[in-house]
Write a structure and sequence with these properties.
Elements: H1 3-31, H2 35-61, H3 64-92, H4 112-119
């Protein structure tokens, strides 16, 4: 068995696993009950699925320019997905979109008044 066959089999395994993780993330976005669980489903398995697809593409393409582009796509995805999920969660927290009965630890509850005051425009003096 040649090295090309091994790379192609590894690439196909990575591509299929990444596609299944991305599919699971999409199904979870539809099925999960509230915003925080949907954000978790959008951020974690989607990014891992994308990284597996990128690794599969890199194993299949095997050229320097293509691999560099795939590494940049993966790096930007890893840098932006957690930050975007965090900001969506912080923006949605003061609203009624979050089921607090499902939270194990609610670290923002003590700051809810301050968050609500920052969102309301102050009246002119």
């Amino acid at each position: 068995m040649s090295l090309d066959v091994v790379f192609d089999v590894a690439a196909s395994v990575c591509l299929i696993a990444g596609a299944l993780l991305s599919l699971a993330a999409g199904v979870a976005l539809v099925r999960f009950p509230d915003l925080l669980t949907r954000m978790h489903a959008a951020a974690k398995p989607q990014v891992l699925g994308l990284l597996l697809v990128l690794v599969g593409c890199a194993l299949r393409l095997r050229t320097g320019v293509d691999i560099t582009t795939l590494v940049l796509v993966g790096a930007f995805s890893l840098a932006t997905a957690p930050v975007a999920a965090h900001m969506v969660g912080r923006a949605a927290y003061p609203h009624e979109d979050i089921r607090t009965d499902l939270l194990v630890t609610d670290e923002l509850a003590a700051h809810l008044d301050r968050i609500a005051d920052e969102r309301e425009p102050s009246a002119p003096a």
